[in-house]
Predict the structure.
Amino acid sequence: MSGQGAALRATAAVSLTPVPDWLRRTVADTQSLAGKDIEDIALAAGAVVGALDALVRRQERWAGAWRQRQALSAAAATTRQMGRAEDEAALRDAVLLTRPGDDVGPAGRLLLAWRRLATRSTKDLLMEKNLAAVLEEFDHAPDDEVVSDRVEDLRRLRAGAGTVGMLTGAFIAAERHGFGRALGAWLADALLAQRLGWAHAVPLLGAEVALAMPPGRPRRVASVIAATGVETEAERAKGLLAAQARAALRAVDLFVDLERRADRLLGVAPKLRAKAADAVVDKLLSDDAIVASEKIAGMSDRGLRRLFDRLVELGALRELSGRPTFRIYGL
């Protein structure tokens, strides 16, 4: 990449990304929602999602790594919400260090569910076969009748619901059969991507799954929900819209960070002498992380490790595990 090209990309990033501070303050936390009408929260959420949409439509070469990094964050939050101890590093290990065909375990399957959202074509996400697989990855037994009902519910939401109705409806569709808010977040992200016409979904709400019904809400509202088991429609909608806005803000911030890292990698790529260097760079730009034992364009483990070490020395790549062996590399 020429210096002029890099400068133009940096200028574009500055013009698109930082999101105005007033948007961040509007949805910063539960307290910031107090006294605000749902219309105010919807306006803020729409503005942030609009900024995110502009970034998605740039179709950057490294967007795959960005979406998968978002999937990892969603999986880690989902894992915590389910009472499990695995963090992002453990989730990476579960998937990357497991031999093909072997079981990655419950936590690893959660990561696969969110990666499915990030990597499958948007038009396929809400088909029956895919939803059945997602239910299994979320540790729910798939039922053909239930899956068929949910597909029909989601089609109606996609076709006729407004933004707020689509968002809340996705969670209701999941909760109706006891599937929980993690699956609701997955469905809401899929519906948003389809509504906006994205080729691939960006995992968003999974990282906010514990906040989808905001904790620390005023005691009066919390006591009503505890006593009745029912969340008021306005409270649900405000909490979900704010969660979606916060998630989109984080995605925008990560986009800015990974753009800088990807530009560094692309800047040093022409200096690499390994025959398969271009294929390795493409893989690094497409995935959250890879291991040196991965088979890429016929490169040996030793050759791939040498290339990774060279990229780390050049500041174009990070070693993510912190281990001397079974090392993992990514932007």
Q: What stands out?
A: Residues 1-16, 212-230 have pLDDT under 50 and may be disordered. The first strand starts at residue 290 and ends at 291. The first helix runs from residue 3 to 16.
